[in-house]
Specification:
Elements (H helix, E strand, L loop, with lengths): L2 H10 L9 H15 L4 H7 L7 H6 L5 H19 L12
Helix pairs in contact: 3-5
């Protein structure tokens, strides 16, 4: 599914371009996963479907970080459940 498809759905839901974008969800996930300190940066990048620049490594590393990615997905799901229940919400600082 493309970013354009997701962005169109967000617009139909009433969100403006200055409020949210599909890529913003990926950026938020990357930030929170990295800041959690629980997962390796390489596993996070792989979970976000960022490819290894080396074509040989990319061809043979299909299962790389699989166990950690499964744990990461569960942590993320638990985190979202906590937020939905009114759990800890961390205010993000605006860049200067």
């Amino acid at each position: 599914m493309s970013d354009n498809t997701l962005n169109a759905a967000l617009r139909r839901l009433g969100y403006g371009k200055d409020e949210v974008t599909a890529h913003g969800f990926r950026a938020t996930a990357s930030t929170l996963l990295n800041e959690s300190g629980r997962f390796s940066p390489d596993a996070i990048e792989r979970a976000l479907a960022h490819q290894d620049p080396d074509p040989v490594r990319r061809a043979y590393a299909r299962g790389t970080f699989w166990k950690e990615r499964v744990e990461m997905a569960q942590w993320w799901a638990d985190h979202l459940d906590t937020l939905r229940k009114g759990g800890e919400v961390i205010q993000m600082r605006r860049p200067a």
